[in-house]
Amino acid sequence: MEIHDGLTTAIVEQKRQKFGWNVITAAKRTPAIVFFLRQFKNSMVLILIGASIFAYFAGEGVDALIITGIVLLNATIGFIQEYKAEKAIEALKKLLAPKVRVVRDGKEQLLDAKELVPDDLILINEGDKVSADCILIEGNDLHADESILTGESVPVEKDLKENNKLFMGTQITHGTGKALVVNTGMRTEFGKIATLTSETEKDISPLQKEIAHIGKFVGIVTIGIATILFLVGYFLQERDIIDNLLFAVSVAVAAVPEGLPTIITIALALGVQRLARKNAIMKQLSSVETLGSTTIICSDKTGTLTKNQMTVQDFAIGGQLYEVSGVGYQPQGSFSPVLPDSKEVELAMRTAILCNNAKLTEEKGHWQILGDPTEGALLTLAAKAGFTAEKLESFKKIAEVPFDSERKRMSVIAQDAESKRLAAYVKGAPESILERCTHRMKNGELVTMTDEDRKEILKKSDAMAQQALRTIGLAYKKDIPQKPQEKYDAEKVEDGLIYLGIVGMIDPPREEVKEAVRLTKKAGIRVFIITGDYGPTALAIAKELGIAQEDTKVITGEELAKLNEEKLKDLVHTEHEIIFARVKPSDKLRIVEALKQTGEVVAVTGDGVNDAPALKRADIGVAMGITGTDVSKEASNMVLTDDSFGSIVTAVIEGRTIYENMKKFIFFIFSSNIGELVAIFAAIIVGLHAPLTAVLLLIINTLTDVFPALALGIEPVEKDILEQPPRDPKARIMQRRFIMRYVLNGTWIGLVTAGVFTWSLLQGGFIFGSDLSFDSEEYMKAASMAFVVLTFFQMLQAFNARSATRSIFRMPFFNNLYLIGAIILSTVATVLFVQLPFFQEYLGTRALTQNDWLLVSLLPFTIIFWEEVRKFIEPRLNGKRTH
After folding, report:
1. Catalytic member of 128, 133, 145, 300
2. Known catalytic membership, residue 119
3. Residues 395 and 519 in one domain
């Protein structure tokens, strides 16, 4: 059987046994229960689980129940936000054409794409999506959009020689043909990217590392506290060993900041919601903060920095260069200077419309093209000049001489219904058009083309090319004799042409990106461009956006392949900005790996299948929501719903703000917990019971502390947030100065709390050395005093936490109404816990007198004085000014 008869059914079955179905193999999906259990891997959560188990066996059922509830709440919030399984491989299936026309047993059949096997013969038409890797064996002016794989914005012309390969997932923008399948399923280029994406590992985020570090810190402190309390109780107070052990561990457990994991999770979830309102959807909670520590953004060009819509910017005709405004396919724009109403302009626009197979359509105010983007740009140009296909309905296409790579021209013969005369309308590369031109239009008159004319026209074409514009020449020929379609010969049709003009087009940069780039540079973030497009085009776009300078390096895929890993690391580490052009998916992955190995926190933007492996490997992958493929969206951490690079800056601001706010509420919580510990230690050292019961400690850590801490998590953005360099990813929140600050604050809070507790006991008639029962009125009243004063300290400490350097009197008081509301709520709750009989019975509290309330209300203001003095003195000791 000949090749044009296709395979026989028997051979198809043999090949399917060998090669399998033409599908992208999906990785085994992670069960929901596994996603839920992952939420418990956090070291802080593990400490709480241990605390809950111990509390239960120690007879503290209520404590165990509360801690368990907190752990489950934290896990549930994280699970809901993050249960979007990594469907990158499954998403690849959605990009494949579900049906394909195949020739088998000598007959044309319409089959599911998954049934294709190697050596199948398939038929291809304009608009089809290629369903397997193929070799073209017959083609008629075939062009394929391969941007999904390569990032190159211009469709690639296919021929029967060197450029005869068609790839799975790409789109046919023009022409027809027949192709022989060579690879299916995971053996295709598409499949290789799927394999690369699935094998690419994702590092844990900087925030996850930070939380793990904090968890380790808390774990060490908890063990240390338990050990010290046990030794003090056993050797100094001579307690029973079992009772002493239970007491030491219960106090240590109670001092653990139970609410911290939940507060971090909720703060991140709120950040995710804020970003969603600003066109950025985060898939993982921890990714929000990662953006704030980003040091470099590796951006795709096509569709990310640019609109992915070819647009004519320059139009040269009649010896004059016209600048064309407007971006994309929307037919709105103007010419500068004003385009004259001349014969040559009319002929040029007629050529742009008739020598064209694309269609310009509008749907709900959104203009798009069907067909080749270059031809779409020509239709848009003509529409801006007032010419449309509808206005040329009197012209009927008679024949077409397709474009080919040797001639670099395309011609259409059309007949004017009124005059019945035929003319050829031609477009192509300017040099190929000029070599066939004998005349040109000048002031509406036909004049002979001179060598000087050709030099001048080519000079303008070269000037456009220097700006990375793609140039197309337009020409026509009148009085073509009528013949059958097959009788029109390109050599004769395109001989003796009349030159009309040249258009220069480009995939233009997005309007908002220039400002976004300026802000990223201000924030100390470098921007690299990694594209499959040509270097000069990418450099021109980068210079226009302010990313690149005249001396910016442009590294091609071939040059990149010659660099070993060490040289690549040196290159990306030393250069401020680089453009990587004509790169493959594996190249992008190499670049990201090299950057990560030099200590950079890398964000990668992209919208194509070719971006997926790098998006997944990056610290944060940013996919485009509108033009982005499902693959890129699923491999990413963040999806931009407006496809705007500018939204990344918004996300960076949010990420940095979240990190700064995390420091605020961690300081707030830890200073409170240090206060609790110091109060307990101080009381025990002087021979008293702990001033706070485990239940009261739990209420402070899980209720009264939580609301102000959450409010600190949504503090407004600080004005200079983008003027600060990206934080060192190796830097920890728990640094010496930070720890000293909350330890000193907490020590003061604890000492005053212990003092109030002791004073209350003495006021109640207690004498040192006498027995003191936990059930006595004296103890419960003193514990209530300690509980209230400690809580009020924390409420005022929340104001101190808003800034480590600025005085609270210099900060706008009402710009965080949530904090004020939280403090009021916690204060009211504290009063009710102490004054209402219902709570007194369950919590072991007692009502305070008017004088008691006055004392516990005034003493906490000392922490304001303490912090204000520190903020005044510390910068001067360090030789710095406050700001």
Report:
1. 300
2. no
3. no
